[in-house]
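A.,

Following up on our hallway conversation. Structure tokens first:
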């Protein structure tokens, strides 16, 4: 899929910013990105790297996954083709494999990903390594995962992850933060 067809997060960023009653300058101050660059993103004239998108999500008190989900139309039946890539700039490519606002979110990460950001999700998350290798740090332990390995993280667990091998492809599936999980 070409750049022109790549999913755009601009409208989702703008909606979230307005919902928090923030100006572009305030989001720029929180994220460390420039207001003109944020304006270009909101108007889909620029695509952020995954790192920039995470900085924007942090500034907007949400996650990149939530911004991806909010950027796509929700469909009851939706096929996402392997050729559908997000076209994000940077070393890591990210492709939503579930589009729209559903009870679960899924993203495929291809390429390098570093552990510079800590995550903590309200609900459960599953990490599956399709190719390559990753290290996931959770609750003071480092878990080394290779091709075919999975790791389940219960909701509320602080974690970070990074790729440790070339050609890494990771699928991350999470129950949406908007879903209230009732324990039986």
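Then the amino acids I'd put at each of the 184 positions:
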């Amino acid at each position: 899929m070409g750049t022109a067809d790549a999913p755009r997060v601009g409208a989702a960023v703008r909606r979230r910013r307005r919902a928090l009653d923030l100006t572009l300058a305030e989001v720029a101050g929180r994220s460390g990105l420039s207001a003109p660059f944020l304006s270009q993103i909101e108007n889909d004239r620029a695509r952020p790297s995954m790192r920039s998108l995470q900085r924007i999500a942090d500034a907007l008190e949400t996650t990149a996954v939530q911004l991806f989900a909010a950027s796509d139309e929700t469909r009851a039946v939706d096929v996402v083709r392997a050729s559908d890539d997000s076209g994000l700039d940077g070393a890591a490519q990210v492709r939503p494999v579930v589009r729209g606002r559903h009870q679960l979110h899924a993203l495929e990460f291809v390429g390098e990903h570093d552990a510079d950001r800590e995550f903590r999700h309200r609900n459960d998350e599953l990490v599956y390594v399709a190719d390559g290798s990753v290290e996931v740090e959770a609750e003071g332990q480092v878990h080394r995962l290779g091709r075919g390995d999975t790791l389940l993280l219960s909701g509320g667990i602080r974690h970070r992850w990074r790729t440790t091998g070339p050609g890494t492809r990771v699928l991350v599936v999470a129950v949406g933060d908007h879903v209230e999980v009732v324990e039986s």
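The beta strands are 93-96, 104-110, 125-131, 133-138, 141-146, 150-153, 159-163, 169-175. Curious whether your intuition agrees with the design.

B.
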